Prior knowledge:
InterPro entries: TF_FadR/GntR_C (IPR008920), Tscrpt_reg_HTH_GntR (IPR000524), WH-like_DNA-bd_sf (IPR036388), WH_DNA-bd_sf (IPR036390). This protein has helices at 6-20, 32-39, 43-55, 72-75, 81-85, 93-120, 125-144, 148-166, 169-182, 186-197, 200-211, 215-239; strands spanning 59-60, 68-69, 86-87, 90-91. The protein is mainly α.
Amino acid sequence: MVKRSVSGDVFEQIAAEVLGGELPAGSTLPSERQLAEALGVSRPAVREALQRLAAAGLVSVRQGEATTVLDYRRSAGLEVLPRLLLRGDTIDPAVARSILEARLHNGPKIAELAAARVRARGGAEAQIDGELALLHESVDSLVAESDPLTQQRIALEFWDHVLDLADSIAFRLMYSMLRAAYEPALAALAPIMSAEVGNGGAYRDLAAAIAAGEPERAAESARALLGPATTALIHALDGA
Length: 240
């Protein structure tokens, strides 16, 4: 287990209170000295934590002024998603729903971009062939696997390869954060996701559409793959 630093502990505590609403937007934090005394840590540890909070878009730190809590919905990035999704051992239904909606809308576009790049090829033919080989290998591994939890992990690797083919840094960074939020809940989601990750034929269809360089077919295949489980999960969340 990796030991967290003192400043890391301070960061996590304040971040949890900001994201949880205990420290609402517009409120001010005590001074560094007051925080250090209240938390029983050094002022340098508090200062480092505040700098991290500012970098995450959770607070505004200005020299000579009080540290102000920001509206993270407007100032923070996707890196806060994992903290928003899981509050202790509890999944936040609203956050989970938004992640599922993003997954359903982004997946087909990523598949479309991947197929378009395969069709264009250009001077990267060898690289694309290698990426396609990895894509097909992940489908083979998925079909050979029977454990739903392991299948989910392989499915995530499949989408990693699709993203490599799409060659979009914006979608890559978005996916990385969505995946970081999603992975801690894999075991809880396994019963509902089993139908999707167990549908090897749908993954083969999507891989074939991308390999054939057919963007519209790839987008439709991705939609057909992702849609049923997304709908089922949203219904489950609405009934929770």
